[in-house]
Amino acid sequence: MVVILAAIATVVVNGGLELCLWKLAKWEKHPSLEARSLSFGSRLTLFQILNTAYIAILVNAHVPGVNWGGQRLKDFTPTWYSEVGSQMVISLFVQIMVMNGMDWLGYTWENCCTRSSTTIKAAKTQQELDALFTGTSFKFETRYAELINITYVCLAFSTGMPLLNVVAAVAFLVTFWSDKMLFLRYFRTPPFMDGTLHKHLTAWLPLGLLAHLAVGVWMLSNRTIFSSDEWVEEEFAKQISLAEGQD
Asked: CA-to-CA distance for 70 and 68, rounded, in angstroms?
């Protein structure tokens, strides 16, 4: 139960970060829409990665002289996978449901309430009627940050938790079809933007590959789970037997 609550809290914090950073980006008075989207998307990507993956590791890590109430784990032990790893997987699944479910809730609200027969009849002008069916804006920078966060976390920890590869596949499959259907029924036509946002945010992906290599080596070096001592001893004994036989 604690693991589930911690996972939900992670998603709630990610949502709070999105609201706060969006307000800050608007207050910064950027000269263009691309500049504001770039500033907001970069910060949201960074803070969501830190909150989803590294905060949980830091809180549960063993730091000499520091005690903040975590499990104080020194390595990727079985306890780490059952406590921190499971929390990470659950939080990603919740993140997938929330980031797509909120859009569908908005779409349902638009059809049931905003575009009801009463509100349509109450429209006095063509402009008011058009506003009812225009739809809401689609934030590319938010979707980029959410998907890059999922990709980065899955890349970093998938060596020891292969289930994260399935999580990433589900995230992209569900988000692709959800956004595709909502673009036809709910979202308004997005403003024209160049490729600056895409190039800048996808530059995070090579860092995910480096994290995959570094964390993967760390996970596989834990002899409690991935022990190779017996195999090394057997191979060493075979080599000695072959050498003695040749003599």
From this structure: 6
How many structural domains is the chain composed of? 1
Average pLDDT over residues 61-74: 59
The neighbouring-strand residues paired with 8 are none
Domain that holds residue 178: 2-226
More confident residue, 114 or 244: 114
In this predicted structure, the answer to whether residue 214 has a pLDDT above a threshold of 60 is: yes
Structural domain includes residue 234: no
Find out whether 164 and 92 touch, Cβ atoms under 8 Å: yes
pLDDT digits (tens, 9 = 90+) for 69-84: 555 666 777 788 888 8
SS3 of residue 160 by DSSP: coil
Whole-angstrom distance, CA of residue 26 vs CA of residue 30: 7
User: Measured in whole angstroms, how far is the alpha carbon of residue 42 from the centre of its chain?
Assistant: 14
Looking at residue 232, its pLDDT comes to 54
How far is it, in rounded angstroms, from Cα 105 to Cα 111? 10
Tokens of 152: 């980065």
159 backbone φψ class: left, alpha, beta (φ>0; ψ -120 to 50)? alpha
Could you tell me if residue 105 is left (phi over 0), alpha (psi between -120 and 50 degrees) or otherwise beta?
A: alpha
Q: What is the dihedral of CA 135, 186, 107, 176, to 10 degrees?
A: -140
Residue 172: its H or E element: helix 163-185
State the DSSP code for 69. S
Q: What's the whole-model pTM score?
A: 0.79
**Within a domain: residue 83?**
yes
